[in-house]
Sequence to fold (639 residues):
Amino acid sequence: MRFQLRSLFRGPPDINALERNGDVDSLLRLLTDPNPTVQRKAAEALGRMGEPAANKLIGRTHHANRTFRIGAVEALADIRESRAGKRLTDLLLTDESTEVRWVAAIALGETGGGGAVPALCTALKDPDKYVRYGAALALEHLGWTPASAEDRGYFLAAAQRWDEIPSAPDVPAAPFIHHVHDSDPEVRAHAVEILGKLGTPDAKVACDLVLRDASGDVRWKGILAFPDCGIPLMHLPRVLSKRKRERKSPYIASFLNFFFLGLGYNYLGFWWGLLLFQANVTAIVTLAPVFGAVTLYLISYLISTVAVAHTWYYVRGLPDL
Amino acid sequence: MVIPWSFSSKADIAGMKERRDYSGLIRALSHRDLEVQWKASGALAELGPGGMEHLLAALHNRNRDTRLGVIEALGQIRDLRAVDPLLSLLADQNNEIRWEAALALGEIGDLRAVDPLRHALQDMDRYVRYGAAVALEKLAWVPETKEEYAFSLAGRQDWKSLAMLGASAVPALTLASRDPERTVRIQAIRTLGQIGDREALPAIYDALGDPDDQVRWEAVIAAPKCGIAPKSIPRGLSRRPRIRKSPLTAGFLNFVLPGIGYLWLGKWWGILIFQIDIYTTLWIYQMRGDIAALDVLLPFYVILAIHAWYIARRMPEF
Fold:
Protein backbone atom coordinates (compact mmCIF):
# COMPACT_ATOMS: atom_id res chain seq x y z
CA MET A 1 0.00 0.00 0.00
CA ARG A 2 2.81 2.40 0.88
CA PHE A 3 4.52 2.15 -2.49
CA GLN A 4 1.19 2.47 -4.31
CA LEU A 5 0.48 5.73 -2.50
CA ARG A 6 3.97 7.02 -3.28
CA SER A 7 3.47 6.07 -6.94
CA LEU A 8 0.26 8.10 -6.95
CA PHE A 9 1.83 11.23 -5.52
CA ARG A 10 5.49 11.07 -6.51
CA GLY A 11 5.85 8.47 -9.25
CA PRO A 12 8.51 5.73 -9.32
CA PRO A 13 12.11 6.76 -8.60
CA ASP A 14 14.36 7.28 -11.64
CA ILE A 15 17.05 4.77 -10.81
CA ASN A 16 18.91 5.30 -14.10
CA ALA A 17 19.26 9.01 -13.34
CA LEU A 18 20.51 8.28 -9.81
CA GLU A 19 23.08 5.89 -11.27
CA ARG A 20 24.21 8.42 -13.90
CA ASN A 21 24.60 11.08 -11.21
CA GLY A 22 26.56 8.69 -8.97
CA ASP A 23 24.02 9.23 -6.16
CA VAL A 24 25.03 6.24 -4.03
CA ASP A 25 23.19 7.42 -0.91
CA SER A 26 19.82 7.65 -2.67
CA LEU A 27 20.31 4.23 -4.23
CA LEU A 28 21.19 2.82 -0.82
CA ARG A 29 17.93 4.23 0.55
CA LEU A 30 16.01 2.56 -2.29
CA LEU A 31 17.29 -0.83 -1.10
CA THR A 32 14.57 -0.59 1.56
CA ASP A 33 11.86 0.60 -0.84
CA PRO A 34 8.56 -1.27 -0.31
CA ASN A 35 8.51 -2.18 -4.02
CA PRO A 36 10.69 -5.29 -4.64
CA THR A 37 11.33 -4.24 -8.27
CA VAL A 38 12.74 -0.92 -7.11
CA GLN A 39 14.89 -2.76 -4.53
CA ARG A 40 16.25 -5.08 -7.23
CA LYS A 41 16.96 -2.29 -9.72
CA ALA A 42 18.70 -0.22 -7.04
CA ALA A 43 20.92 -3.19 -6.08
CA GLU A 44 21.76 -3.78 -9.76
CA ALA A 45 22.61 -0.10 -10.24
CA LEU A 46 24.88 -0.16 -7.17
CA GLY A 47 26.52 -3.30 -8.53
CA ARG A 48 27.33 -1.51 -11.80
CA MET A 49 28.76 1.54 -10.02
CA GLY A 50 31.73 -0.44 -8.71
CA GLU A 51 34.28 1.02 -6.28
CA PRO A 52 32.35 4.13 -5.09
CA ALA A 53 29.36 1.99 -4.13
CA ALA A 54 31.51 -0.78 -2.64
CA ASN A 55 33.14 1.63 -0.16
CA LYS A 56 29.75 2.53 1.33
CA LEU A 57 28.22 -0.94 1.04
CA ILE A 58 31.01 -2.70 2.95
CA GLY A 59 30.47 -0.48 5.98
CA ARG A 60 26.72 -1.09 6.03
CA THR A 61 26.30 -4.85 5.58
CA HIS A 62 25.00 -5.12 9.16
CA HIS A 63 22.14 -2.68 8.53
CA ALA A 64 19.09 -3.40 10.71
CA ASN A 65 16.80 -3.78 7.69
CA ARG A 66 16.80 -7.27 6.13
CA THR A 67 15.98 -6.14 2.58
CA PHE A 68 18.82 -3.60 2.78
CA ARG A 69 21.28 -6.34 3.72
CA ILE A 70 20.03 -8.58 0.87
CA GLY A 71 20.41 -5.71 -1.63
CA ALA A 72 23.87 -4.80 -0.31
CA VAL A 73 25.08 -8.40 -0.63
CA GLU A 74 23.64 -8.64 -4.17
CA ALA A 75 25.47 -5.46 -5.16
CA LEU A 76 28.75 -6.60 -3.60
CA ALA A 77 28.48 -9.89 -5.47
CA ASP A 78 28.13 -7.95 -8.75
CA ILE A 79 31.07 -5.68 -7.90
CA ARG A 80 33.13 -8.76 -6.96
CA GLU A 81 34.76 -6.70 -4.27
CA SER A 82 37.46 -8.78 -2.59
CA ARG A 83 37.42 -6.65 0.61
CA ALA A 84 33.81 -7.72 1.14
CA GLY A 85 34.85 -11.33 1.84
CA LYS A 86 35.06 -10.96 5.63
CA ARG A 87 31.68 -9.19 5.81
CA LEU A 88 30.03 -11.80 3.65
CA THR A 89 31.38 -14.71 5.67
CA ASP A 90 30.15 -12.97 8.83
CA LEU A 91 26.70 -12.62 7.31
CA LEU A 92 26.71 -16.22 6.08
CA LEU A 93 27.61 -17.61 9.49
CA THR A 94 25.84 -15.26 11.88
CA ASP A 95 22.95 -13.38 10.24
CA GLU A 96 19.53 -14.22 11.72
CA SER A 97 17.79 -14.00 8.35
CA THR A 98 17.67 -17.13 6.20
CA GLU A 99 17.54 -15.11 2.98
CA VAL A 100 20.54 -12.98 3.95
CA ARG A 101 22.59 -16.09 4.75
CA TRP A 102 21.46 -17.66 1.48
CA VAL A 103 22.35 -14.64 -0.67
CA ALA A 104 25.67 -14.32 1.20
CA ALA A 105 26.49 -17.93 0.24
CA ILE A 106 25.72 -17.22 -3.41
CA ALA A 107 27.76 -13.99 -3.24
CA LEU A 108 30.76 -15.82 -1.75
CA GLY A 109 30.53 -18.25 -4.66
CA GLU A 110 30.86 -15.25 -6.98
CA THR A 111 33.58 -13.33 -5.12
CA GLY A 112 35.62 -16.24 -3.74
CA GLY A 113 38.48 -15.13 -1.51
CA GLY A 114 40.49 -16.76 1.24
CA GLY A 115 37.82 -17.34 3.87
CA ALA A 116 35.01 -18.25 1.49
CA VAL A 117 35.51 -22.01 1.26
CA PRO A 118 35.77 -22.76 5.02
CA ALA A 119 32.70 -20.58 5.67
CA LEU A 120 30.73 -22.26 2.91
CA CYS A 121 31.75 -25.70 4.24
CA THR A 122 30.37 -24.68 7.65
CA ALA A 123 27.18 -23.44 5.93
CA LEU A 124 26.62 -26.95 4.55
CA LYS A 125 25.41 -27.71 8.10
CA ASP A 126 23.16 -24.62 8.34
CA PRO A 127 19.71 -25.35 9.86
CA ASP A 128 18.02 -23.94 6.73
CA LYS A 129 17.90 -25.98 3.52
CA TYR A 130 18.01 -22.91 1.27
CA VAL A 131 21.25 -21.73 2.85
CA ARG A 132 22.74 -25.22 2.55
CA TYR A 133 21.67 -25.41 -1.08
CA GLY A 134 23.21 -21.99 -1.78
CA ALA A 135 26.45 -23.04 -0.07
CA ALA A 136 26.63 -26.29 -2.08
CA LEU A 137 26.14 -24.46 -5.39
CA ALA A 138 28.70 -21.82 -4.37
CA LEU A 139 31.28 -24.43 -3.45
CA GLU A 140 30.71 -26.20 -6.77
CA HIS A 141 31.09 -22.86 -8.55
CA LEU A 142 34.42 -22.33 -6.80
CA GLY A 143 35.63 -25.76 -7.97
CA TRP A 144 35.79 -27.17 -4.42
CA THR A 145 36.24 -30.91 -3.96
CA PRO A 146 35.32 -32.55 -0.64
CA ALA A 147 38.33 -33.45 1.51
CA SER A 148 36.59 -36.35 3.25
CA ALA A 149 33.67 -38.75 2.82
CA GLU A 150 31.83 -36.86 5.57
CA ASP A 151 32.25 -33.55 3.73
CA ARG A 152 30.96 -35.22 0.57
CA GLY A 153 27.92 -36.51 2.49
CA TYR A 154 27.10 -33.03 3.79
CA PHE A 155 27.65 -31.57 0.30
CA LEU A 156 25.35 -34.05 -1.48
CA ALA A 157 22.65 -33.66 1.17
CA ALA A 158 22.87 -29.85 0.92
CA ALA A 159 22.66 -30.05 -2.87
CA GLN A 160 19.61 -32.36 -2.45
CA ARG A 161 21.30 -35.00 -4.62
CA TRP A 162 19.90 -37.85 -2.57
CA ASP A 163 20.15 -40.41 -5.37
CA GLU A 164 23.93 -40.02 -5.59
CA ILE A 165 24.58 -40.66 -1.89
CA PRO A 166 24.27 -44.44 -1.39
CA SER A 167 26.52 -45.14 -4.39
CA ALA A 168 29.30 -42.91 -3.02
CA PRO A 169 32.14 -44.87 -1.36
CA ASP A 170 32.48 -45.06 2.46
CA VAL A 171 29.60 -42.71 3.23
CA PRO A 172 29.43 -41.98 6.99
CA ALA A 173 26.10 -41.68 8.79
CA ALA A 174 26.87 -38.39 10.58
CA PRO A 175 25.56 -36.00 7.88
CA PHE A 176 22.24 -37.83 7.68
CA ILE A 177 21.84 -38.18 11.44
CA HIS A 178 22.38 -34.40 11.47
CA HIS A 179 19.61 -33.94 8.90
CA VAL A 180 16.95 -35.90 10.78
CA HIS A 181 16.75 -32.75 12.93
CA ASP A 182 15.89 -30.58 9.91
CA SER A 183 12.73 -28.48 9.98
CA ASP A 184 11.65 -29.70 6.52
CA PRO A 185 9.90 -33.12 6.64
CA GLU A 186 11.00 -33.87 3.06
CA VAL A 187 14.65 -33.51 4.08
CA ARG A 188 14.10 -35.62 7.20
CA ALA A 189 12.42 -38.35 5.15
CA HIS A 190 15.31 -38.41 2.66
CA ALA A 191 17.89 -38.51 5.47
CA VAL A 192 16.13 -41.48 7.13
CA GLU A 193 15.86 -43.30 3.82
CA ILE A 194 19.62 -42.85 3.25
CA LEU A 195 20.38 -44.14 6.76
CA GLY A 196 18.41 -47.29 5.90
CA LYS A 197 20.31 -47.71 2.62
CA LEU A 198 23.65 -47.24 4.41
CA GLY A 199 22.53 -49.84 6.97
CA THR A 200 24.80 -48.49 9.66
CA PRO A 201 24.24 -49.28 13.37
CA ASP A 202 25.25 -45.66 14.11
CA ALA A 203 21.71 -44.73 13.04
CA LYS A 204 20.39 -46.02 16.39
CA VAL A 205 20.92 -42.61 17.98
CA ALA A 206 18.35 -41.15 15.54
CA CYS A 207 15.74 -43.89 16.04
CA ASP A 208 13.93 -42.26 18.96
CA LEU A 209 13.73 -38.88 17.24
CA VAL A 210 12.61 -40.25 13.87
CA LEU A 211 9.83 -42.47 15.19
CA ARG A 212 8.45 -39.58 17.26
CA ASP A 213 8.49 -37.32 14.19
CA ALA A 214 5.39 -35.22 13.53
CA SER A 215 5.34 -36.37 9.90
CA GLY A 216 3.73 -39.75 9.23
CA ASP A 217 5.92 -40.15 6.16
CA VAL A 218 9.14 -39.72 8.17
CA ARG A 219 7.93 -42.25 10.75
CA TRP A 220 7.09 -44.76 8.04
CA LYS A 221 10.50 -44.32 6.37
CA GLY A 222 12.02 -44.92 9.82
CA ILE A 223 10.10 -48.17 10.24
CA LEU A 224 11.48 -49.40 6.92
CA ALA A 225 15.02 -48.09 7.52
CA PHE A 226 15.93 -49.03 11.09
CA PRO A 227 15.67 -52.83 10.76
CA ASP A 228 18.34 -52.47 8.03
CA CYS A 229 20.50 -50.64 10.58
CA GLY A 230 20.44 -53.57 13.00
CA ILE A 231 17.55 -52.38 15.19
CA PRO A 232 15.03 -55.25 15.56
CA LEU A 233 11.61 -54.45 14.14
CA MET A 234 10.10 -55.59 17.45
CA HIS A 235 11.84 -52.67 19.21
CA LEU A 236 10.04 -50.12 17.08
CA PRO A 237 6.37 -50.19 18.23
CA ARG A 238 7.52 -49.04 21.68
CA VAL A 239 9.34 -46.02 20.23
CA LEU A 240 6.47 -45.18 17.89
CA SER A 241 4.07 -45.23 20.82
CA LYS A 242 5.92 -42.19 22.25
CA ARG A 243 4.97 -39.96 19.34
CA LYS A 244 2.73 -36.98 19.79
CA ARG A 245 -0.85 -38.05 19.07
CA GLU A 246 -3.09 -36.14 16.69
CA ARG A 247 -6.21 -37.21 18.56
CA LYS A 248 -7.35 -34.73 21.18
CA SER A 249 -7.17 -35.90 24.78
CA PRO A 250 -10.44 -37.39 26.08
CA TYR A 251 -9.41 -36.33 29.60
CA ILE A 252 -9.05 -32.65 28.67
CA ALA A 253 -12.25 -32.64 26.60
CA SER A 254 -14.22 -34.25 29.43
CA PHE A 255 -12.69 -31.98 32.09
CA LEU A 256 -13.61 -28.90 30.07
CA ASN A 257 -17.13 -30.11 29.41
CA PHE A 258 -17.69 -30.85 33.09
CA PHE A 259 -16.52 -27.52 34.49
CA PHE A 260 -17.27 -25.31 31.47
CA LEU A 261 -20.11 -27.04 29.67
CA GLY A 262 -19.59 -26.66 25.91
CA LEU A 263 -15.89 -25.69 25.94
CA GLY A 264 -14.93 -29.37 25.72
CA TYR A 265 -16.84 -29.59 22.43
CA ASN A 266 -15.20 -26.36 21.30
CA TYR A 267 -11.79 -27.92 22.10
CA LEU A 268 -12.75 -30.84 19.85
CA GLY A 269 -13.45 -28.43 16.98
CA PHE A 270 -17.23 -28.02 17.22
CA TRP A 271 -18.19 -24.37 16.72
CA TRP A 272 -21.43 -24.77 18.67
CA GLY A 273 -19.50 -25.65 21.84
CA LEU A 274 -19.04 -21.97 22.56
CA LEU A 275 -22.74 -21.40 22.00
CA LEU A 276 -23.59 -24.15 24.47
CA PHE A 277 -21.22 -22.61 27.00
CA GLN A 278 -22.80 -19.18 26.59
CA ALA A 279 -26.34 -20.56 26.71
CA ASN A 280 -25.54 -22.37 29.96
CA VAL A 281 -24.02 -19.27 31.57
CA THR A 282 -26.86 -17.03 30.39
CA ALA A 283 -29.51 -19.49 31.64
CA ILE A 284 -27.93 -19.66 35.09
CA VAL A 285 -27.57 -15.85 35.37
CA THR A 286 -31.07 -15.00 34.14
CA LEU A 287 -33.02 -17.79 35.87
CA ALA A 288 -31.17 -17.69 39.20
CA PRO A 289 -33.49 -15.01 40.70
CA VAL A 290 -36.52 -17.20 39.87
CA PHE A 291 -35.37 -20.77 40.70
CA GLY A 292 -32.39 -20.15 42.97
CA ALA A 293 -28.72 -20.51 42.08
CA VAL A 294 -28.24 -23.90 43.82
CA THR A 295 -31.04 -25.60 41.85
CA LEU A 296 -29.73 -24.20 38.58
CA TYR A 297 -26.13 -25.27 39.29
CA LEU A 298 -27.34 -28.78 40.12
CA ILE A 299 -29.26 -29.00 36.84
CA SER A 300 -26.26 -27.57 34.96
CA TYR A 301 -23.84 -30.13 36.43
CA LEU A 302 -26.31 -32.91 35.68
CA ILE A 303 -26.27 -31.87 32.02
CA SER A 304 -22.47 -31.57 32.23
CA THR A 305 -22.21 -35.16 33.44
CA VAL A 306 -24.16 -36.38 30.42
CA ALA A 307 -21.95 -34.25 28.18
CA VAL A 308 -18.83 -35.71 29.82
CA ALA A 309 -19.98 -39.27 29.11
CA HIS A 310 -20.79 -38.33 25.52
CA THR A 311 -17.44 -36.56 25.06
CA TRP A 312 -15.49 -39.45 26.52
CA TYR A 313 -17.04 -42.06 24.23
CA TYR A 314 -16.91 -39.77 21.22
CA VAL A 315 -13.15 -39.11 21.57
CA ARG A 316 -12.33 -42.73 22.38
CA GLY A 317 -14.09 -43.70 19.15
CA LEU A 318 -11.79 -41.50 17.06
CA PRO A 319 -8.72 -43.16 15.47
CA ASP A 320 -5.70 -42.79 17.78
CA LEU A 321 -3.18 -41.61 15.17
CA MET B 1 17.48 -41.38 51.83
CA VAL B 2 17.09 -44.12 49.25
CA ILE B 3 15.65 -42.92 45.98
CA PRO B 4 13.43 -45.53 44.33
CA TRP B 5 15.00 -46.73 41.07
CA SER B 6 12.02 -45.64 39.01
CA PHE B 7 12.93 -42.03 39.81
CA SER B 8 16.66 -42.50 39.25
CA SER B 9 18.25 -42.21 35.83
CA LYS B 10 19.24 -45.88 35.45
CA ALA B 11 17.93 -49.18 36.77
CA ASP B 12 20.19 -52.13 37.59
CA ILE B 13 18.92 -54.42 34.84
CA ALA B 14 21.94 -56.74 35.00
CA GLY B 15 21.52 -57.17 38.76
CA MET B 16 17.80 -57.87 38.46
CA LYS B 17 18.47 -60.40 35.72
CA GLU B 18 21.10 -62.05 37.91
CA ARG B 19 18.62 -62.30 40.79
CA ARG B 20 15.81 -63.41 38.43
CA ASP B 21 13.81 -60.49 39.73
CA TYR B 22 10.90 -60.77 37.29
CA SER B 23 8.79 -58.17 39.09
CA GLY B 24 11.64 -55.65 39.01
CA LEU B 25 12.33 -56.26 35.35
CA ILE B 26 8.64 -55.95 34.47
CA ARG B 27 8.53 -52.68 36.43
CA ALA B 28 11.59 -51.50 34.48
CA LEU B 29 9.62 -51.92 31.25
CA SER B 30 7.82 -48.68 32.08
CA HIS B 31 11.02 -46.80 33.00
CA ARG B 32 11.16 -43.31 31.50
CA ASP B 33 14.42 -44.17 29.69
CA LEU B 34 13.79 -46.05 26.45
CA GLU B 35 17.19 -47.75 26.64
CA VAL B 36 16.29 -49.17 30.06
CA GLN B 37 12.98 -50.43 28.66
CA TRP B 38 14.78 -52.19 25.82
CA LYS B 39 17.35 -53.71 28.15
CA ALA B 40 14.67 -54.91 30.58
CA SER B 41 12.74 -56.51 27.73
CA GLY B 42 15.94 -58.15 26.46
CA ALA B 43 16.77 -59.45 29.94
CA LEU B 44 13.30 -60.96 30.34
CA ALA B 45 13.72 -62.66 26.97
CA GLU B 46 17.15 -64.00 27.95
CA LEU B 47 15.75 -65.48 31.18
CA GLY B 48 13.66 -67.72 28.96
CA PRO B 49 10.42 -69.64 29.58
CA GLY B 50 11.02 -69.75 33.35
CA GLY B 51 9.24 -66.43 33.74
CA MET B 52 6.29 -67.17 31.49
CA GLU B 53 3.74 -66.93 34.32
CA HIS B 54 5.00 -63.48 35.32
CA LEU B 55 5.02 -62.33 31.71
CA LEU B 56 1.55 -63.65 30.85
CA ALA B 57 0.13 -62.02 33.98
CA ALA B 58 1.79 -58.72 33.04
CA LEU B 59 0.06 -58.79 29.63
CA HIS B 60 -2.98 -57.41 31.47
CA ASN B 61 -1.01 -54.52 32.96
CA ARG B 62 -2.63 -51.13 32.38
CA ASN B 63 0.65 -49.52 31.35
CA ARG B 64 1.18 -49.61 27.59
CA ASP B 65 5.00 -49.63 27.83
CA THR B 66 4.90 -52.62 30.14
CA ARG B 67 2.63 -54.55 27.80
CA LEU B 68 4.77 -53.69 24.76
CA GLY B 69 7.90 -54.87 26.59
CA VAL B 70 6.24 -58.10 27.69
CA ILE B 71 5.02 -58.85 24.15
CA GLU B 72 8.52 -58.16 22.82
CA ALA B 73 10.01 -60.57 25.36
CA LEU B 74 7.38 -63.22 24.57
CA GLY B 75 8.21 -62.93 20.88
CA GLN B 76 11.85 -63.62 21.64
CA ILE B 77 11.20 -66.48 24.09
CA ARG B 78 8.99 -68.24 21.48
CA ASP B 79 7.05 -70.30 24.02
CA LEU B 80 3.81 -71.67 22.54
CA ARG B 81 1.89 -70.81 25.73
CA ALA B 82 2.04 -67.17 24.60
CA VAL B 83 0.18 -67.76 21.33
CA ASP B 84 -3.42 -67.59 22.57
CA PRO B 85 -2.92 -64.48 24.76
CA LEU B 86 -1.11 -62.77 21.88
CA LEU B 87 -3.88 -63.67 19.43
CA SER B 88 -6.39 -61.93 21.68
CA LEU B 89 -4.16 -58.83 21.63
CA LEU B 90 -4.62 -58.54 17.85
CA ALA B 91 -7.98 -56.98 18.76
CA ASP B 92 -6.52 -54.57 21.33
CA GLN B 93 -7.65 -50.95 21.18
CA ASN B 94 -4.07 -49.67 20.98
CA ASN B 95 -2.47 -49.90 17.54
CA GLU B 96 1.11 -50.38 18.81
CA ILE B 97 -0.03 -53.32 20.95
CA ARG B 98 -1.71 -54.92 17.90
CA TRP B 99 1.40 -54.27 15.82
CA GLU B 100 3.79 -55.71 18.43
CA ALA B 101 1.52 -58.73 18.95
CA ALA B 102 1.52 -59.43 15.19
CA LEU B 103 5.33 -59.26 15.09
CA ALA B 104 5.64 -61.50 18.15
CA LEU B 105 3.32 -64.10 16.61
CA GLY B 106 5.53 -64.12 13.53
CA GLU B 107 8.60 -64.70 15.72
CA ILE B 108 6.98 -67.56 17.67
CA GLY B 109 6.15 -69.34 14.43
CA ASP B 110 2.97 -71.17 15.44
CA LEU B 111 0.70 -71.73 12.44
CA ARG B 112 -2.43 -71.10 14.57
CA ALA B 113 -1.59 -67.44 14.07
CA VAL B 114 -1.99 -67.53 10.29
CA ASP B 115 -5.73 -66.93 10.08
CA PRO B 116 -5.87 -64.09 12.64
CA LEU B 117 -2.86 -62.48 10.94
CA ARG B 118 -4.61 -62.75 7.57
CA HIS B 119 -7.46 -60.75 9.11
CA ALA B 120 -4.96 -58.30 10.54
CA LEU B 121 -3.86 -57.52 6.97
CA GLN B 122 -7.13 -55.59 6.81
CA ASP B 123 -6.59 -53.66 10.06
CA MET B 124 -7.36 -49.93 9.90
CA ASP B 125 -3.81 -49.10 11.07
CA ARG B 126 -0.99 -49.31 8.52
CA TYR B 127 1.61 -50.35 11.10
CA VAL B 128 -0.52 -53.31 12.15
CA ARG B 129 -1.00 -54.29 8.50
CA TYR B 130 2.75 -54.04 7.99
CA GLY B 131 3.42 -56.14 11.10
CA ALA B 132 0.92 -58.77 9.91
CA ALA B 133 2.55 -58.93 6.45
CA VAL B 134 6.03 -59.34 8.00
CA ALA B 135 4.76 -61.99 10.43
CA LEU B 136 2.98 -63.99 7.72
CA GLU B 137 6.17 -64.01 5.68
CA LYS B 138 8.03 -65.41 8.70
CA LEU B 139 5.37 -68.09 8.97
CA ALA B 140 6.04 -68.98 5.31
CA TRP B 141 2.41 -68.28 4.53
CA VAL B 142 1.43 -68.72 0.90
CA PRO B 143 -1.62 -66.66 -0.14
CA GLU B 144 -4.42 -68.75 -1.58
CA THR B 145 -5.64 -66.08 -3.96
CA LYS B 146 -4.24 -63.10 -5.78
CA GLU B 147 -6.52 -60.87 -3.69
CA GLU B 148 -4.90 -62.15 -0.49
CA TYR B 149 -1.47 -61.63 -1.98
CA ALA B 150 -2.52 -58.08 -2.79
CA PHE B 151 -3.45 -57.44 0.87
CA SER B 152 -0.01 -58.66 1.86
CA LEU B 153 1.64 -56.33 -0.67
CA ALA B 154 -0.54 -53.45 0.49
CA GLY B 155 0.55 -54.17 4.07
CA ARG B 156 4.14 -53.68 2.95
CA GLN B 157 3.10 -50.64 0.86
CA ASP B 158 4.68 -52.24 -2.20
CA TRP B 159 2.82 -50.05 -4.68
CA LYS B 160 4.80 -51.12 -7.76
CA SER B 161 3.96 -54.81 -7.27
CA LEU B 162 0.33 -53.92 -6.61
CA ALA B 163 0.14 -52.01 -9.90
CA MET B 164 1.60 -55.01 -11.70
CA LEU B 165 -0.90 -57.34 -10.04
CA GLY B 166 -3.76 -55.59 -11.82
CA ALA B 167 -7.46 -55.93 -11.03
CA SER B 168 -6.87 -58.40 -8.18
CA ALA B 169 -5.27 -55.59 -6.19
CA VAL B 170 -8.39 -53.40 -6.23
CA PRO B 171 -9.93 -54.60 -2.89
CA ALA B 172 -6.60 -54.14 -1.05
CA LEU B 173 -6.08 -50.72 -2.61
CA THR B 174 -9.66 -49.74 -1.80
CA LEU B 175 -8.93 -50.47 1.86
CA ALA B 176 -5.68 -48.47 1.66
CA SER B 177 -7.55 -45.58 0.04
CA ARG B 178 -9.48 -45.17 3.33
CA ASP B 179 -6.33 -45.10 5.50
CA PRO B 180 -6.17 -42.23 8.02
CA GLU B 181 -2.66 -41.35 6.73
CA ARG B 182 -2.82 -39.14 3.63
CA THR B 183 0.38 -40.47 2.03
CA VAL B 184 -1.10 -43.99 2.00
CA ARG B 185 -4.34 -42.73 0.43
CA ILE B 186 -2.40 -40.83 -2.23
CA GLN B 187 -0.36 -43.89 -3.20
CA ALA B 188 -3.43 -46.15 -3.17
CA ILE B 189 -5.44 -43.88 -5.48
CA ARG B 190 -2.44 -43.35 -7.76
CA THR B 191 -1.98 -47.13 -8.04
CA LEU B 192 -5.71 -47.65 -8.71
CA GLY B 193 -5.33 -45.15 -11.56
CA GLN B 194 -2.39 -47.11 -12.94
CA ILE B 195 -4.45 -50.32 -12.84
CA GLY B 196 -7.40 -48.57 -14.48
CA ASP B 197 -10.07 -51.12 -13.55
CA ARG B 198 -13.78 -50.24 -13.33
CA GLU B 199 -14.01 -52.09 -9.98
CA ALA B 200 -12.04 -49.18 -8.53
CA LEU B 201 -14.87 -46.74 -9.27
CA PRO B 202 -16.35 -46.58 -5.72
CA ALA B 203 -12.91 -45.95 -4.17
CA ILE B 204 -12.04 -43.30 -6.75
CA TYR B 205 -15.43 -41.65 -6.37
CA ASP B 206 -15.03 -41.56 -2.57
CA ALA B 207 -11.52 -40.12 -2.94
CA LEU B 208 -12.91 -37.24 -5.01
CA GLY B 209 -14.54 -36.09 -1.77
CA ASP B 210 -11.41 -36.62 0.36
CA PRO B 211 -10.54 -33.83 2.82
CA ASP B 212 -6.95 -33.77 1.49
CA ASP B 213 -6.35 -31.78 -1.68
CA GLN B 214 -3.57 -34.03 -3.00
CA VAL B 215 -5.73 -37.15 -2.61
CA ARG B 216 -8.54 -35.43 -4.52
CA TRP B 217 -6.11 -34.46 -7.26
CA GLU B 218 -4.85 -38.04 -7.61
CA ALA B 219 -8.50 -39.15 -7.84
CA VAL B 220 -9.19 -36.58 -10.57
CA ILE B 221 -6.23 -37.96 -12.55
CA ALA B 222 -7.20 -41.60 -11.90
CA ALA B 223 -10.95 -41.25 -12.54
CA PRO B 224 -10.93 -41.21 -16.39
CA LYS B 225 -8.51 -44.18 -16.45
CA CYS B 226 -11.03 -46.19 -14.41
CA GLY B 227 -13.94 -45.29 -16.65
CA ILE B 228 -15.50 -42.32 -14.83
CA ALA B 229 -16.75 -39.91 -17.50
CA PRO B 230 -14.97 -36.51 -17.21
CA LYS B 231 -18.32 -34.76 -16.86
CA SER B 232 -19.08 -36.81 -13.71
CA ILE B 233 -15.87 -35.78 -11.93
CA PRO B 234 -17.01 -32.28 -10.81
CA ARG B 235 -20.08 -33.81 -9.15
CA GLY B 236 -17.85 -36.18 -7.16
CA LEU B 237 -15.51 -33.34 -6.24
CA SER B 238 -18.43 -31.22 -5.03
CA ARG B 239 -18.87 -33.66 -2.10
CA ARG B 240 -15.54 -32.65 -0.55
CA PRO B 241 -15.54 -30.97 2.87
CA ARG B 242 -15.25 -27.23 2.38
CA ILE B 243 -12.50 -25.27 4.03
CA ARG B 244 -14.54 -22.09 3.83
CA LYS B 245 -16.54 -21.56 6.98
CA SER B 246 -20.31 -21.38 6.66
CA PRO B 247 -21.57 -17.79 6.22
CA LEU B 248 -24.82 -18.70 7.97
CA THR B 249 -23.00 -20.03 11.05
CA ALA B 250 -20.75 -16.95 11.14
CA GLY B 251 -23.79 -14.66 10.91
CA PHE B 252 -25.72 -16.62 13.54
CA LEU B 253 -22.79 -16.61 15.97
CA ASN B 254 -22.27 -12.89 15.52
CA PHE B 255 -25.96 -12.29 16.22
CA VAL B 256 -26.21 -14.31 19.43
CA LEU B 257 -22.59 -13.80 20.62
CA PRO B 258 -21.43 -10.56 18.96
CA GLY B 259 -17.77 -10.88 17.90
CA ILE B 260 -17.56 -14.66 18.21
CA GLY B 261 -18.65 -15.03 14.57
CA TYR B 262 -15.56 -13.03 13.59
CA LEU B 263 -13.38 -15.09 15.91
CA TRP B 264 -14.73 -18.26 14.30
CA LEU B 265 -13.74 -16.86 10.89
CA GLY B 266 -10.18 -16.44 12.18
CA LYS B 267 -10.29 -12.72 13.03
CA TRP B 268 -8.50 -12.29 16.36
CA TRP B 269 -10.28 -9.02 17.14
CA GLY B 270 -13.61 -10.85 17.34
CA ILE B 271 -12.91 -11.60 21.01
CA LEU B 272 -12.33 -7.87 21.54
CA ILE B 273 -15.77 -7.04 20.10
CA PHE B 274 -17.28 -9.77 22.26
CA GLN B 275 -15.74 -8.26 25.39
CA ILE B 276 -16.72 -4.70 24.41
CA ASP B 277 -20.31 -5.92 23.88
CA ILE B 278 -20.37 -7.43 27.37
CA TYR B 279 -19.12 -4.19 28.97
CA THR B 280 -21.55 -2.08 26.91
CA THR B 281 -24.51 -4.32 27.78
CA LEU B 282 -23.67 -4.14 31.49
CA TRP B 283 -23.25 -0.35 31.36
CA ILE B 284 -26.56 0.25 29.51
CA TYR B 285 -28.27 -2.22 31.85
CA GLN B 286 -27.10 -0.23 34.86
CA MET B 287 -28.10 3.06 33.28
CA ARG B 288 -31.44 2.16 31.69
CA GLY B 289 -32.50 -1.42 32.52
CA ASP B 290 -32.05 -4.70 30.63
CA ILE B 291 -34.84 -4.41 28.03
CA ALA B 292 -33.59 -0.97 27.05
CA ALA B 293 -30.08 -2.42 26.58
CA LEU B 294 -31.50 -4.90 24.08
CA ASP B 295 -33.35 -2.07 22.25
CA VAL B 296 -30.10 -0.18 21.77
CA LEU B 297 -27.86 -3.11 20.92
CA LEU B 298 -30.11 -5.30 18.76
CA PRO B 299 -29.64 -3.24 15.55
CA PHE B 300 -25.86 -3.51 16.05
CA TYR B 301 -26.15 -7.27 16.44
CA VAL B 302 -28.06 -7.45 13.16
CA ILE B 303 -25.38 -5.37 11.41
CA LEU B 304 -22.59 -7.53 12.86
CA ALA B 305 -24.43 -10.69 11.75
CA ILE B 306 -24.86 -9.39 8.20
CA HIS B 307 -21.21 -8.29 8.10
CA ALA B 308 -19.92 -11.68 9.28
CA TRP B 309 -22.17 -13.40 6.72
CA TYR B 310 -20.85 -11.06 4.00
CA ILE B 311 -17.13 -11.53 4.72
CA ALA B 312 -17.58 -15.31 4.97
CA ARG B 313 -19.29 -15.28 1.55
CA ARG B 314 -16.32 -13.43 0.07
CA MET B 315 -13.80 -15.97 1.33
CA PRO B 316 -12.57 -18.39 -1.41
CA GLU B 317 -14.46 -21.70 -1.46
CA PHE B 318 -11.67 -24.31 -1.66
